[in-house]
Specification:
The protein is mainly alpha-helical and 216 residues long. Helices cover 72% and strands 0% of the residues. The protein is built from 10 helices and no strands. It has helices at residues 10-31, 38-51, 74-88, 91-97, 99-103, 108-136, 140-148, 154-182, 189-206, 208-215. The relative contact order is 0.07.
């Protein structure tokens, strides 16, 4: 009676195992949609490194949970009101206010009343929608997903981006002209625009903490 042959070709088995592992790995990568893409993995790595910078505003659209929110107080409300008040007394809005006496021949009182009425009407809807973010912990533009759906909500976000780009561009241009004027024309308008843009970039990238310290 012949005995079974238990001898194994180690080299042949190792080669077969390596081929099998490569085949299974490639099949798993091709069929598994959750497998990480190398390029995206590199982007995530760089994103994590950038977010680790001290003071960088990196929260994005992530929801603020109740335990992470600041407690409501009179001082916090006053600080928020002063922040938006100072933000809206910008060169852009001042230039619009000057259209009353320069273009329509209105006096100061009439121009101020028109501006005040326009602010009340324009800010009413925005103020009402802003409370949704405070109640849900989401950005106001993200709350639109609950009303419009995921994809339709992207349209207002894109329109808001276009609006903010135009608004910031006008602010930078007018701010650069003001810096040039107050410097006695020793500073060119282009340099003034660059300065305003850089200051705005620092506040936008490193968050509101710098802006709030400056206000204090």
């Amino acid at each position: 009676m012949e005995k079974p042959n238990h001898e194994v070709d180690i080299e042949k088995s190792a080669g077969t195992l390596a081929v099998s592992l490569r085949t299974n790995s490639s099949e798993h990568t091709a069929t598994d949609p959750t497998a990480p893409i190398p390029i995206l993995s590199k982007f995530r790595t760089w994103n994590q490194r950038i977010e680790n910078f001290a003071g960088l505003e990196a929260r994005g659209i992530k929801r603020v949970y109740p335990e992470e929110r600041h407690a409501a107080s009179v001082s916090a409300d006053a600080q928020m009101a002063m922040m938006w008040f100072s933000a809206n007394i910008s060169a852009n809005n001042l230039a619009v206010g000057l259209l009353g006496p320069l273009l329509f021949g209105l006096g100061f009182v009439d121009s101020a009343m028109c501006a005040f009425g326009g602010i009340l009407v324009g800010a009413a809807a925005t103020a009402y929608m802003s409370i949704w973010g405070a109640q849900s912990g989401n950005r106001t533009m993200i709350v639109l997903r609950y009303f419009m759906g995921y994809w339709p909500a992207k349209l207002p976000c894109v329109l808001n981006m276009i609006l903010m780009i135009g608004y910031s561009t006008i602010d930078c241009i007018i701010g650069g002209q003001i810096l040039s004027a107050v410097s006695g024309d020793t500073m060119s308008v282009v340099v003034g625009i660059v300065i305003i843009a850089l200051v705005s970039w620092v506040v936008a990238v490193f968050g509101m903490a710098i802006f709030q310290k400056y206000e204090r």
